[in-house]
Design goal:
GO molecular function: DNA binding; transposase activity
Number of helices: 11
Oligomer: single chain
InterPro entries: transpos_IS91, Transposase_32, Zn_Tnp
Strand order of the largest sheet: 8-3-5-4-12
Distance between the termini: 23 Å
Radius of gyration: 25 Å
GO biological process, one term: DNA transposition
Strand content: 15-25%
Organism: Epilithonimonas vandammei
Protein name: IS91 family transposase
Number of strands: 13
Bound molecules: zinc ion
Number of domains: 2
């Protein structure tokens, strides 16, 4: 398969990729102490759009140009496999919009929990989702309203460090007992006081952690759970009360349509996009990041191959972990019927969910024609006729 690297990266494609770092890292990857799920994910990313996954040969229905593409891995952690899912997701959410103000709220875990997040990511991230939702629900209930929320988990900070936080899109009101919509505020300010939200959020989270600890101690695990560990747990629990927790509310959105576009930017984001990688040499990886402690100025960070991949792997979510969740009147049980009624009451025509769009790639040669697949192949490589044809023909002009 060597010598068949005829596909040059398109000018719009990033020059460097996470996969390139994995390639230079080679077998040193095994020394990083990653679990088998992380290794499997990284292996998928490494093979994405290479001959290892096979591919297809397409013809343009306009200019007749024949081109070859390798299959993508479709892994949700892959920097190359995000945009398609994102578009579909945005389209589906657009059918669920209400003509009401929306808010963006971010719930962040303090960094004293980072170690626990690495060891028990599922537990901790589940608690994050639950605590955020229970917090909003509590405030809504005080006003007699059922709330709704869409939440997306991000686990990273700008420099690939661990920084678990939840982006939540919250409609600025709720449904009362009679099923009628009520706006919570009319002055455009955030729904609830952020300081109060932070306090309730922390209390909910700590309560869950405490409960989990008592379960651990009761489940005949006393022997396994050494005194030392119990002490550490207790120390951790106490440190959670030392610093204030941060709940951040951004300004409301202009229109409800912009909400979904905006949220789409967060839903299918991963720890680092390939476009941020500026260089890879035989020892290090250089990438751009924004330093939010200094007003978000752009800086560059240099890490060893090992450290870069170790950090990247911290953001590989547990198998089947749901990272986008819908709550309250935006949850799937509600959505089917009641949300449509609500939309009608608010004077908008409910839209039907569209069937998934067939992805129709455009020809890179003439830019207008659609590509039609004329042959597929597996990891053994493209068919003989294609190889002969591509050898006898000059490569098509760019
Ligand atoms: Zn991929
Ligand atoms: Zn984020
Ligand atoms: Zn064409």
């Amino acid at each position: 398969m060597r010598g068949f690297k005829t596909i040059k990266k398109q000018p719009t494609q990033p020059q460097y990729e996470v996969a390139d770092v994995l390639n230079v890292l080679g077998s040193r990857l095994e020394d990083l102490g990653l679990n088998s799920w992380q290794l499997r994910t990284l292996s998928a990313l490494k093979k994405c759009r290479t001959s290892a996954l096979g591919g297809h040969i397409d013809a343009c229905d306009e200019c007749g140009n024949i081109s070859i593409s390798y299959n993508s891995c479709r892994n949700r952690h892959c920097p190359k496999c995000q945009s398609k899912n994102r578009e579909q997701w945005i389209e589906n959410r657009e059918t669920e919009l209400l003509p009401v103000p929306y808010f963006h709220v971010v719930f962040t875990l303090p960094d004293v929990l980072n170690k626990t997040a690495l060891h028990e990511p599922k537990m901790l991230y589940d608690f994050l989702f639950e605590s955020a939702w229970e917090t909003l629900q509590t405030f809504g209930k005080n006003r007699g309203l059922k709330m709704g929320m869409i939440a997306v988990l991000h686990t990273w900070g700008q420099n690939l460090s661990l920084h678990p936080h939840l982006h939540c899109i919250v409609p600025g009101g709720g449904v009362d007992e009679s099923g009628t919509w009520k706006n919570l505020r009319s002055d455009g300010k955030f729904l609830f006081p952020v300081k109060a939200l932070s306090k309730v959020f922390r209390a909910k989270f700590c309560e869950k952690l405490k409960h989990q600890l008592s379960l651990k101690l009761n489940e005949n695990q006393r022997e396994k759970f050494t005194e030392n560990e119990a002490g550490n747990y207790e120390k951790l629990r106490q440190s959670l009360w030392e610093k204030p927790w941060v709940v951040y509310a951004k300004k409301p959105f202009g229109s409800s349509k912009s909400v979904v576009e905006y949220l789409g930017r967060y839903t299918h984001k991963i720890a680092i996009s390939n476009g941020r990688i500026r260089g890879i040499d035989d020892k290090t990886v250089t990438f751009d990041y924004k330093d939010y402690r200094q007003k978000g100025i752009k800086k560059q960070m240099v890490l060893s191959h090992e450290e870069f991949i170790r950090r990247f792997a911290m953001h590989i979510l547990p198998k089947r972990f749901v990272k986008i969740r819908h709550y309250g009147f935006l949850s799937s049980t509600w959505k089917r019927i009641k949300l449509k009624n609500l939309q009608q009451k608010l004077g908008i025509q409910p839209k039907e969910k569209l069937p998934p769009k067939v992805f129709q790639p455009k020809c890179s040669c003439c830019k207008v024609g659609n590509l039609v697949t004329i042959a597929t192949f597996d990891l053994r490589g493209p068919p003989q006729w294609f190889l002969e044809m591509s050898q006898s023909q000059p490569t098509p002009k760019k």
